[in-house]
Write a structure and sequence with these properties.
Blueprint lengths: L5 E3 L7 E3 L21 E11 L4 E10 L4 E7 L5 E8 L4 E11 L6 E10 L5 E9 L2
Antiparallel strand pairs: 1-9, 2-3, 3-8, 4-7, 4-9, 5-6, 5-8
Length: about 140
Amino acid sequence: MNAYGRFEAEDYTSQIRRHHAAHSICEWPRYRVCGRHQEWRLDLFLENFDFGKGAASYKVEVASATEGGSLEFRIDRRMAQWIGSCAVEKTGGKTNWKTKTGRVDGAVGLHDLYLRFAGKRILFNVNQFTFQPAK
């Protein structure tokens, strides 16, 4: 999978992996990633993600009606190499999208990609994300 396309979250909900015993997932028709619990983690897993000669940055659209959480980008295993992250704050609604950007470190070649969602109670929604290649 070419890492430099636009990835719509609703296209990948079957690849969500949960890592807490007590949870529920909220799925609105288009806005997919959120959860309920005291504190827990949720991963979106994408196989064979090809970063080629390297990624420089990411852009992700997020929304949160609550306190939000954090989003981490990791490669190869869910607790393995961290390549980027961002804090997601309350945006004023579950569909009030804000764009977050950040630097990517160490993403070169073919890897499995994990988007790791963390926080307390209801997390946040992701609409889409992209990576930009290194120049």
